[in-house]
Amino acid sequence: IVVRFLAGGGGDAAATPVAEVMTSRVTAVAPDDELAVAAEAMRDGGVRRLVVIDAGTVVGVLSHGALVQATDGEGAGRQATLGVTAGA
Fold this sequence. Notes:
It is a single chain. By secondary structure, this protein is of the alpha+beta class. The protein is 36% helix and 17% strand. The chain has four helices and three strands. Strands 1-2-3 form a three-stranded mixed sheet. Helix 2 (35-45) packs parallel to helix 4 (76-84). The radius of gyration is 15 Å and the shape is globular.
């Protein structure tokens, strides 16, 4: 919303369809994937959030912040950070 709607000038949020600001190509991981796999997906995709899918059902979202906290910013957390901040 911030990047695609507000930074782009905003407008009438009540009349703006979700399709205009949503991410249509999402990156996903499974609940049993290791954090290193999630970090690699964040790094390679340059994304800060991963959809967690189990048997075709969305069961959660893993944020970059949660990954960094879980790893104390080391290993997988550091790897993900390097990827998602490369263009910053």
